[in-house]
Model the fold of this input.
Amino acid sequence: MKAKNNQKYMGLLDRWTKKQNKKVLTEKKEKAAEKKPAQAVKVEPPAIKTEKAKGKASLLAARIIIKPLVTEKAAVQESFNKYSFRVARSADKGQIKKAIEDLYGVRPISVAIVNAQGKSVRFGRAFGRRSDWKKALVTLRKGESITIHEGV
Done:
């Protein structure tokens, strides 16, 4: 086998050449260190964060709560302080509860989750399927409400 610079190396000689190369490199580093004066390095302690990062929780909440469901059934349930939301499929009850607190500023009493199956659909001759999704039914205390229908 030919290596760079057209020199032949054998396995036993590789160790010797590597040691020689290390010596040359260390000598070069020592000479460079002698030429340059040592510079004082300022090290600042890391800043201590006491406040919780604002906006981070609301960003996570916006990923969990996808949109409110605006249907006739949901409108009837709102009179009983029950609100329906389409949520991320990976969300659990605790995450949904916290997301409602962050987004709307109200604390839910309970959260019920429904896994909805996607329907089979047809486009001409092609058959397909809508994706599965998750629905959350959030119950609030008497006197509390969420304004979902603003601007609709």
Observations:
- The first strand starts at residue 65 and ends at 68.
- Residues 64 and 88 are 5 Å apart (CA to CA).
- Strands lie at 65-68, 82-87, 110-116, 120-123, 126-129, 133-139.
- The domain at 56-139 is CATH 3.30.70.330 (Alpha-Beta Plaits).
